[in-house]
Amino acid sequence: MFLLFSACNNEPSYKITGRISSNSMDEKTIYLENTLWYMRMSELKTFDSAVIKNGKFEFRGKTDSSYMALLSIDNQPFVNIFVENGDIKLNIPEDINKSIATGTKLNDLSKLYDENIDQVRSKMTEFMQYVNSQEPTEKLQQEVSERYKALQQEMLQISVKFLEENPGTLLSAYILISGVLSLGGSEETIQSIYDKLEENVKRSALGNLISKELSRMKFKELSIGEMYRDMTMKTPDGKNISLSDYVGKGKYVFIDFWASWCGYCRQENPNVVALYKEYKNKGFEIIGVSLDSDREAWIKGISDDGITWPQMSDLKEWDSEAVIKYRIKGIPFTVLLDKEGKVIDVNLKGEKLKDKLKTLMP
Question: What does the pLDDT look like over 87-130, one tens digit per residue?
């Protein structure tokens, strides 16, 4: 029994202890929150909470694998930490946004990375102070644009170098998203770093996000004059249809990417309904591609908005094949095709769509 008790007590666990400089924080509740909730990748927001006593707080627990979390006070997240088994220490100064987590591998590496990036952030702050002291001119705007791009490139180089020296971890996945993808890293660079991630990191939410982005990158941005990209999905009544069933058949085809939950899409629908009534007998067709995940909500949206043109969806929302093939970053998103299936224009809405159709089908 003694040996069993000792073994249980020796199981890996984490302890997060914090010391806060500000006396005004005493008796407030500090929350350990889910970073993925803020990225809309999880429905779970809060992992744990603790009351600050005499400028101190503590969280304890066990975890099978590391994960990202945010500390929050008064609904204001102020520091990102990696929760992993070990003794994690948090120093929270008067300016809580300068808080630092140390004591475990990922948190120590994260601190090192931030120190490298902060050198560039300081340059950016100094430059903006200079800009704010100058009279705004066209030449200054050009200087700002060039300097900003140069500093972004410097951040990208720091991030890539850091990941080459410290590959494989959950921190790597986070930096890959925040410091490489967001700064315009190449597909080859991202793929190379992704390939070195540990398998459990690849299977994580962040790893899946990178994998999807790599899939999207294989399809370049749509360009005017290129052929459409075919897809096969289900209609609301469960039948398979493809874009090729309608495209290249001697009609102008308007592909409308939307969803019942998208407010801007629903606001635009009356305009599209009116244009469909006006041009459907003049060689014009619309195909609706929905990013819904709820079939009933999709069907209700079609009915409520009076949509009568063909509809298709794989009900996978942002995991849809449409998002990947058409590099969709937001909806509503539209593609207008000529009678052969070549792209005439993208993202036509409102008056611009009306004017274009009037030109094509006077």
Answer: 999 999 999 999 999 999 999 999 999 999 999 999 989 988 98
Q: What is the CATH number of the domain that holds 324?
A: 3.40.30.10
Residue 321 DSSP SS3: helix
Q: How many domains does the chain have?
A: 3
pTM beyond 0.85: the answer is no
Residue at 81 is within a domain: yes
Same domain, yes or no: 132 and 252? no
Q: Which of 254, 282, 261, 262 is nearest to 352 (CA)?
A: 254
Task: Identify each DSSP E strand in the chain by its residue range.
Answer: 14-20, 29-34, 46-51, 56-61, 67-73, 76-83, 86-92, 100-102, 232-234, 240-242, 252-258, 284-290, 311-312, 333-337, 343-346
Residue type, 227: M
Number of helices and strands in the chain (H, E): 12, 15
Query: How many CA atoms are closer than 13 Å to the CA of 171, on its beta-carbon side?
Result: 24
- Domain shared by 200 and 238, yes or no: no
Contact (Cβ atoms closer than 8 angstroms) between residue 326 and residue 219:
yes
Q: Which whole-number Å values give the CA distances from 233 to 12, 242, 252, in the listed order?
A: 47, 6, 21
**Identity at 308, one-letter amino acid code:** T
Angle between helices 350-360 and 263-279 in degrees, nearest 10: 20
| Phi, psi (rounded to 5 degrees) for 43 | -90, -10
Instruction: Report pLDDT for 9.
Output: 53
Same domain flag for 206 and 126? yes
CATH number of the domain at 39, please.
2.60.40.10
Range of the domain at 27: 11-101
* Ramachandran quadrant class, 96 (left: phi over 0; alpha: psi -120 to 50; beta: rest): alpha
Residue in the block written with tokens 């929302």: 317
- Tell me: do 175 and 237 sit in the same domain: no
Distance CA 101, CA 90 (A): 5
Model pLDDT for residues 121-162, shown as the tens digit of each residue: 999 899 889 888 988 888 888 998 899 899 999 999 999 999
Please spell the DSSP secondary structure of 253-309, one letter per residue. EEEEEE-TT-HHHHHHHHHHHHHHHHHGGGTEEEEEEE--S-HHHHHHHHHHTT--S
Q: Which helix H or strand E contains 9, and what residues bound it?
A: helix 2-9
In DSSP terms, 19 is beta-bridged to 56, 91
